[in-house]
Amino acid sequence: MYIINQLTALILSFLFTLGSYAPENFAIANVPEKSADSVRIVSFNVRCKDDTFGSVKGRSQLICAALEQYAPDSFGVQEATAQWIEILSENLIDYDCVSRMRDGKASSEASAVFYLKDKYNLLDSGTIWLSDTPEEFGSKFTLSFCPRIATWVKLENKETGEIYIHINTHLDHVLESVRVKQINVLKVKIEELKTEGYPVVCTGDFNTKEGADAYNEMKPCMNDSKYLAENSDDGATYINYGKNIFETRPIDFIFVSEGVRVENYKIIDEKIGDMYLSDHAALCADIIF
Asked: Which residue segments constitute the domains of the chain, with CATH numbers given?
């Protein structure tokens, strides 16, 4: 299987380079219908680097195609290197992006938020570091493997005047105790944003499971859209390109503030041949404020 996956990735990457397999030819089944008055939110850990299951360049064609077909109002991406920000910005021309790198390293990552630029005005935005000094660039808790951030946007619908706030994050992947500390910093920012009186959605790779300490720490502040949705999926989001067949619980979430209705919650785990879009499945939630 390892050899087959390697060959599949190489062939697809070669075809993408030649342009003979265009993203528009990749059709995704079962994209949920979105009602006219709902807002579609997507969260996607795009996997920062090349690996044996596909290059960034090759997988990006599929990821851009998927995002085009889901057509979210806004989406948050995790592990978004400078290469990923450039690819997504160049290919998804209907979107603008708010992005800040977590540190000054060449391999640095953003937790960027993209939004439909013709539909929304960007009223405000910012980034915090999930540390004791949230305004300090590159700061982190001592035991955190690397700096972690949360980036947020405040968006106004140009036609209706409706406003919502989307904050996107990626927590530590090693220690649950660090994730709990990071959640507490995140909660302070979310509660501050909520005082403006607008709905807040929080997307991200939380690297924690339902029922774990960090997840439980988040719940008093925000609701898990999975359990509010009228039509809901269930299953793992860290799929490791289909190899993680024994896991059943998500580590990626779309949280929402009180008083919102969720129509659909979907795990986006489509693939082409043996090639998954990422080691994580993406999430989609259709929300009515």
From this structure: 2-29+37-288 (3.60.10.10)
